[in-house]
Specification:
This protein is an alpha+beta fold. 31% of the residues lie in helices and 21% in strands.
Length: 802
């Protein structure tokens, strides 16, 4: 349920009260803390602005991280703080929009949701009690504020220079940003449904209450963390190799997260050192003092978004006389109503301030998804319960992961269930590899899903849309409370899937089922963790096929082991797996059809028959195939070979061009794709580089890679405008921080890229300065060892007292 069921929104309280609350939170971890200014943190920069931060404790580390990150991204952080405070419309206008959940919402809608959900007192009580984490949070707030003080309002980048909304950070702000990160795969993704919920004005008929599973599947998929058919879903490739398959017998890791190129989910590279305590390097998101994806001298790891469900819906049985009263075990319970009104200055000229009354229950806030058949009617309503709300454990987990000496310790570090919505793939110097989904998932068994389905239609929603709907009229349908779980109602680590092997594991955002197809999947896992026996993403299939071809010595490279050099080559081949699956059949049908096809269809046949079936910048016809397959993949019975759960890596496959209806539909789609490419101003055989590029410092830089549905491992997308336009594709999503990490006698040997660079300030030399490396498939060796840092250091070190 919303966090603010008892306390007021902090920003509406008098400034003195808000400051007092913040001060109390800051002082909570101050016992035995040295006097301010008695310690110092050192910030060094190496090639492309990678920050190396050294301090005697984690408070200093966080102080340095916040300061250095602000040097590169202060305006991004300041704007995100507006989101966390619920003040976007007040300062950026009610009619503007901002990033929220998995998309964009009007500023006023964001503010209403945030002001309803957040409760600073509740967040403070839920804070991780770990002293090091509290010190880090305190240091981060102080480091960011020190940067604002040092540069002054007029020293900021143009985007936020002199703006009244750039204000010092408070401890409560940082807690709010953590909460937003935790719930972005659940409650925040369904924020529009929370905002839409309102009691029905009149009684509704039974027909209006019926659930349409197909429409629900589409609606829920749009909101899903990793199943959005319109693109923009968070995802990644993570591979790890053990001693049996690497040439030196040591572990090897690929990390390839697919995240937004703008906003606080944007990665930033850093190296953190507390002498004698921690030495870890990699990348993190905005407003985080810990390495999220990275390595130390013994262990490397990455994350991928998992298939686990972060919430369930509860179907509420309502009192026929009052749609704001629901019934549990025969007892009537009144919903909690709260009206949020935005400040007067947040309204558009001449308009009244936005207001909204939110309703919540013991199961969580009420939602309404009428397009999915889940409307609030006179007899039924729905509430959402998010298992990640108040999950404050991630920082502690990542700190411990940064200190892990082997895979066993890496796994143990995640035992606090701080991983909110991600898998972990890692390997150690001894040659152990691991896949683990130790994320936070509601503890609901397959039997409980069946027993607690409120209706056959609701039960069908899990099969069609992956949406668990439980019966909110029975207390027995509450999540199980296992005492070994770190969070009440979550599945404990012992019942989550983990695979440790000396061979290999992978994940590309499908479930744990095929972490390694040759290793039996863990048994008795809740369906809410992920499905088994279902068709896999083309990226998953492509990755497994690439790995198996390499280890069989049949991919054109010498030998049959996966070393770092081979791994870097494989991930950047940009093979288009959809093209590999269907082009033989399409080309054969083109030859048979000949002159019977329209002019556009014949042009499409010529372009795609000559296409090399890759998504490299040089590939002519790659954009046409993307526009063709965007629609063709959804044609009825398009596959010649249907999915076979016994052969999930190679099925479905082929185009069913022998069936007249399918053949006609495929050729029509091909002609339509040619017309779309021509309408955008390009020839059917246009090369990918001509339509997929970014201008950096006046020079056009081609961007390799393909869209999710094409099965290209190097995934890039145009979120918000996926189809080709006059400017081609505006790539703003996909491959971001990418690392390949192995080990030698000294420790890690790492090469990496950050596609968009360290800075979001267009005037900064660090903005998109690594994009050309990405375009040319060149890797940047990461300086981990002290001698390497000193050899690559650019400029003088910066020392800050704290």
């Amino acid at each position: 349920m919303p966090l603010n069921t008892k306390a007021p929104f902090a920003s509406t309280a008098p400034a003195g009260i808000a400051l007092a609350v913040s001060t109390l939170i800051l002082l909570a971890g101050c016992a035995n803390t040295p006097a301010p200014g008695s310690r110092s943190v050192t910030i060094e920069r190496t090639a492309h602005g990678i920050a190396h931060i050294t301090a005697p404790d984690y408070e200093g580390i966080a102080y340095g991280v916040a300061y250095a990150h602000a040097q590169d991204n202060v305006c991004q952080t300041a704007e995100h703080l507006l989101t966390a405070r619920g003040e976007r419309s007040q300062f950026l206008g009610a009619t503007g929009t901002g990033e929220f959940g998995l998309g964009r919402l009007p500023n006023s809608q964001i503010d209403l949701f945030v002001r309803n959900h957040m409760d600073d007192a509740v967040l403070a009580r839920a804070a991780d009690p770990d002293r090091e984490v509290r010190s880090a949070m305190r240091g981060y707030v102080a480091g960011y504020n020190r940067y604002l003080q040092d540069v002054g309002p007029q020293g900021l980048p143009e985007a936020c220079r002199g703006k009244p909304w750039v204000r010092p950070m408070m401890a409560s702000d940082l807690s709010r940003t953590t909460e937003l990160s935790m719930i972005q795969g659940g409650l925040a993704a369904l924020a529009p449904a929370v905002l839409e919920a309102a009691p029905p004005a009149v009684k509704t008929s039974a027909a209006a209450e019926a659930v349409d599973p197909q429409q629900a599947a589409l609606e829920i998929a749009r909101l899903s963390f990793n199943a959005n058919p319109e693109g923009g879903e968070l995802g990644s490739n993570g591979w790890a190799f053990g001693r049996n398959v690497t040439p030196d017998g040591r572990g090897l890791v690929l990390g390839n997260p697919h995240f937004p190129w703008f906003g606080t989910n944007r990665f930033w590279e850093m190296h953190l050192t507390i002498p004698g305590s921690i030495d870890v390097m990699g990348a993190t998101g905005g407003l985080s003092p810990t390495v999220a994806i990275g390595f130390n001298k013994d262990v490397a790891w990455t994350h991928t978004v998992s298939t686990g469900k972060r919430f369930t819906l509860y179907e509420l049985k309502l009192d026929p006389a009052d749609p704001t009263t629901y019934i549990v075990d025969g007892q009537r319970k009144k919903m909690t109503a709260k009206t949020v009104v935005l400040p007067a200055e947040s309204a558009a000229a001449g308009a009244q301030p936005a207001r909204k009354t939110f309703y919540s229950t013991e199961w969580g806030p009420v939602v309404s998804l009428p397009r999915a058949g889940l409307a609030w009617t006179s007899t039924t309503a729905y509430a959402i319960r998010d298992v990640n709300s108040l999950n404050t454990r991630s920082a502690s987990a990542w700190i411990k992961m940064g200190r892990a000496r082997n895979i066993a310790e890496l796994r143990e570090a995640m035992g606090n269930q701080g991983m909110p919505w991600i898998n972990t793939i890692g390997a150690d110097r001894s040659g152990n590899a691991m896949y683990a989904d130790l994320s936070v998932v509601p503890d609901v068994s397959a039997q409980q899903l069946k027993d607690c389905a409120p209706s056959p239609a609701a039960a069908k929603l899990f099969a069609t849309a992956g949406l668990a709907v439980l019966d909110g009229s029975r207390a027995a349908c509450d999540w199980k409370r296992d005492s070994t779980a770190a969070s009440p109602g979550a599945i404990p680590p012992a019942r989550m899937p983990v695979v440790v092997t000396a061979d290999w594991v992978q994940n590309s955002n499908d479930s744990f089922w095929l972490a390694n197809p040759h290793i039996a999947a863990p048994a008795n896992i809740s369906p809410l963790v992920g499905p088994m026996g279902v068709p896999q993403r083309l990226r998953t299939r492509s990755g497994i096929l690439e790995i198996e071809a390499r280890l069989a010595g049949r991919d054109g490279l010498p030998g049959n082991k996966m070393g770092a050099q081979e791994l870097r080559s494989v991930i950047f081949r940009d093979r288009n797996h959809a093209g590999e699956l269907v082009m033989d059949d399409l080309a054969a049908a083109c030859r048979s059809a000949g002159a019977s096809l329209s002019a556009d269809q014949q042009a499409g046949c010529r372009a795609l028959s000559a296409w090399d079936r890759t998504s490299t910048p040089q590939a002519k016809g790659a954009p046409l195939f993307r526009e063709f397959w965007r629609k063709a993949k959804d044609l009825p019975k398009v596959w010649r070979v249907p999915f076979d759960p016994a052969r999930p890596v190679v099925t479905p496959a082929g185009l069913d061009m022998a069936t007249p209806a399918t053949r006609d539909a495929v050729f029509k789609t091909l002609g339509d794709a040619v017309a779309a490419v021509r309408t955008a101003g390009f020839a059917p055989d246009v090369a990918l580089a001509d339509v997929q590029a970014r201008v950096v410092k006046g020079q056009k830089v081609a961007i390799p890679g393909g869209d999710e549905f094409e099965g290209v491992l190097n995934k890039v997308e145009s979120q918000g405008q996926p189809v080709i336009g006059p400017q081609g594709y505006n790539i703003n999503f996909g491959t971001s921080y990418i690392q390949v990490v192995g080990f030698d006698e000294r420790g890690p040997v790492a090469q990496a890229l950050l596609t968009y660079g360290q800075s979001t300030d267009p005037a900064s030399p660090r903005a998109f300065d690594q994009l050309r490396l990405f375009s040319e498939k060149k890797w940047l060796p990461l300086p981990f060892h002290r001698a390497d840092v000193e050899a690559q250091r650019e400029g003088a070190p910066l020392q800050l007292a704290y």
